[in-house]
Design goal:
By secondary structure, this protein is an alpha/beta fold. It contains 13 helices and 15 strands. Helix 4 runs parallel beside helix 5 and helix 7 crosses helix 8. InterPro entries: BCAA_transport (IPR051010), Leu-bd (IPR028081), Peripla_BP_I (IPR028082).
Length: about 400
């Protein structure tokens, strides 16, 4: 697939660096990840261009179907049979945590650019794992803090009933209650729910100032669409989506999504660098003008950072590559001022956006207006608080 010609160094296994994009290609995350993530990884391989050392790179991919057993089977095959050196992307925390365990004592690197569980840099931290873009701590705490500063003291949660949703709700609840707010209730729903009526009516009747959607992908889209039918925001309640991307807004349309608050690590229209990347991405095969999500940007950034570390060390073994990655401190073109900590957490700014009204949008994918910027040192859990065994 994406490759750079030339001879690889002897320390690189099989004379080629193989990066496996593992994600949801056919389900609720296919727009925010899917084949767009594969193209982002290919872009990173092309831009790496052998690292000045003729290092060959191959990008492979597979669909984990949002099932931990399927994802685990793919990872084991990649590790034991197919010579894959790194796994990137992996939306769905249950799948990501399973992959994290499998790779812990292997030579493979886990670039968890879409796995949102905070346990990856906490009790489940691994010397083989780097976590980019978002996590439940940042999503829960940072979003709650930003909303409470704007008067959102009373909350009701609509939460997907698996590791991701529960983690976000727990982190947000902890922050809200510690800072004088109240959680008036919570409704749990299965992954892939189509009918949110009963959950939204409970949220509406709670009279909570803020309704927090602790879910993602198609679940969030369905919830927002049905909330618009019920006139929830017109009734004075504010809806905040903890994990929503520009692709999701495009799918539901500004008429439905207008006024929604959301936290993002990346927006394609932030600056010249993000716009240049987005323009290239939109022109890729199969993208048909689509702008990249934060998760897809994270696949690009983490894959390129990994390949640069391979070039610097002359090895694709996680024992060499991951420590090299953790020496990085500087400006990433897509995520701004960036540091990679000893627990594997990549630190960068986060942004609270509000979705524009239809009449405020001037061109395709012009969907967000910036409400607040959360500096990198405030956006993520402090290094010493995660309980990670890698932190001395």
């Amino acid at each position: 697939m994406a490759c750079a010609a030339g001879g690889a160094r002897a320390e690189i296994s099989g004379d080629v660096v193989r990066v496996g994009v593992l994600n949801d290609i056919s389900g609720i995350f296919q727009d925010t990840n899917g084949m767009g993530s594969v193209e982002a990884a290919r872009m990173a391989a092309e831009d790496f261009n052998g690292g000045g050392k003729g290092i060959k790179v191959e990008i492979v991919y597979a669909d984990h179907q949002n099932k931990a057993d399927v994802g685990s089977a793919i990872a084991r095959k990649w590790l034991d049979v197919e010579g894959v050196d790194a796994i990137v992307d992996v939306p769905n925390s249950a799948v990501g945590l399973a992959i994290n365990t499998i790779l812990r004592d292997s030579r493979m690197t886990f670039l968890a650019s879409s796995t949102a569980s905070s346990d990856l840099t906490g009790k489940a931290c691994s010397p083989n794992t780097i976590q980019w873009v978002n996590d439940a701590w940042a999503t829960g705490n940072t979003t709650a803090a930003a909303m409470m500063q704007r008067g959102g003291k009373d909350w009701y949660f609509v939460t997907v009933d698996y590791a991701l949703g529960k983690g976000i709700e727990a982190e947000a609840t902890n922050y809200i209650e510690k800072h004088g707010g109240k959680v008036l209730g919570s409704s749990k729903h299965p992954l892939g729910t189509s009918d949110f009526a009963s959950f939204l009516l409970q949220a509406q009747s709670s009279k909570a100032k803020v309704i927090g959607l602790a879910n993602a992908g198609g679940d969030t889209i369905n919830a927002v669409k049905q909330a618009a039918e019920f006139g929830i925001q017109q009734g004075g309640q504010t809806m905040v989506a903890f994990l929503l991307f520009v692709n999701d807004i495009h799918g539901m349309g500004l008429k439905v999504a207008q006024g929604l608050q959301l936290l993002e690590a990346f927006y394609w229209d932030m600056n010249d660098d993000t716009r240049a990347f987005a323009k290239r991405f939109a022109a890729r095969p199969g993208m048909n003008g689509k702008m990249p999500s934060g998760n897809q940007a994270g696949v690009y950034a983490s894959t390129l950072a990994y390949l640069n570390a391979v070039a610097a060390t002359g090895s694709d073994d996680a024992k060499a590559v991951v420590p090299q990655m953790k020496t990085f401190k500087g400006k990433d073109k897509l995520f701004g001022d960036t540091t990679i900590r000893q627990d594997g957490r990549v630190i960068h700014p986060m942004y609270l956006f509000e979705v524009k009204k239809p009449e405020e949008s001037k061109y395709p994918y012009d969907y967000y207006k910036l409400i607040a910027t959360i500096p990198a040192d405030q956006a993520f859990r402090p290094l010493a608080d995660g309980g990670c065994s890698l932190v001395k």
